[in-house]
Amino acid sequence: MSDQFNAHETVSWAKQRLDDVDTIISKVEKTSGKLKEDARTQADAALARLQASRAKVKSYYDQLRLEAAVVKSGVEDVRDALDAEWIEVESAFQAFLSAAKDQADTVRDVVVARAEAQRKSWEASFSELREQAENAVEKAREELDAAIKRLSDEAEKFQARIGEAKDAGDESWTAVKAGLADARAVHDRTIQKIKDAFSKLL
What we know:
Radius of gyration: 30 Å
Number of strands: 0
Strand content: under 5%
Shape: rod-shaped
Number of domains: 2
Helix content: over 70%
Low-confidence stretches: none
């Protein structure tokens, strides 16, 4: 798997995290007003933690995008930091759910909104992966067609040489053998290109 692919996947993963925390904050902001007294205080504290984490997640996401553009090794360090910060996001989210436990509708709305955001992110990822797979298949098909064409052309040349050499002497047979060796080398290279094209699909 290439560094470029890893960087792209990491940026996509970070974007999903950012979308997730944005959805959580949006729903928490809309629903925390329904809470009373101590629950409201706890929910506001959880919201403040979520917003602080969101700022960090956004910063990490922006950093990943910059680093992925030049495929730097620092992507892994940023991903580790983002993973660690995600623990805070989850902890703050659980604190909000705990504060809002008496408001079943509020909890349900937030959880449903988060699940919907995750579903959309997954669908976007699947769509992108499908497009990448289709592109890889098309490229492999083009390489395979070109390799088969080269092999066919060489087979025709060899067939013509055999036809010319039916009545030829030793010198002509030496040329035919050399042609056969050349055709064999082209055949082997072509078969290897076909195998390489198929291996890209797996």
